[in-house]
Write a structure and sequence with these properties.
Layout: H1 16-34, H2 38-42, H3 54-62, H4 70-91, H5 93-114, H6 124-135, H7 146-165, H8 172-192
Helix pairs in contact: 1-4, 3-5, 4-5, 4-6, 5-6, 5-8, 6-7, 6-8, 7-8
Length: 193
Amino acid sequence: MAGRNKFELKFSFNSPVILGFTIICFLALILDSVTSHASTNLIFSEYHSSLLNPMTYVRFVGHIFGHAGWDHFMGNIMLILIVGPLLEEKYGSANMIFVILVTALGTGIANYILFPRTQMLGASGVVFALILLSSITSMKNGSIPITFILVAVIYIGQQVYQGIFVRDNVANLSHIIGGIIGAWLGFILNRKR
């Protein structure tokens, strides 16, 4: 019939950095299963090893792609997929790569120095960086949004509390460092605007 609108369903690769990050994490988890954790131990987790070993430097970044299992993966990736695309649209893909890399290096190096007997993996430092970055995106004319202060106090405060009083297998320091990096880069990125 003439005049009828056709319904077309289109998909868009709307957030290439966040989608690419998700795909890499998914593939790292599959590879972990296929290699009986060998790939995660070699590439996708950070632990104290010789500075003469080139893989030590790869792991300073690679640890953000590894996850301890599907629940760990889903928890991190769901938050990244919710917050990340909006941030990538606002700040651009290059800035998102920069935020992720700085967070990876910051958390990886801190774990290497401060916790030489601890193996760390996962994207939770990146999650916290994105959460704090998102809470500061409405910064205007040098004023700090009250929502940013509340998010910082609640998220960082919870991690400090858990780091002191709760003994679990969570890298609270990477959450705190990720949040600090996200806030710091948020101030820098918003000043440029």
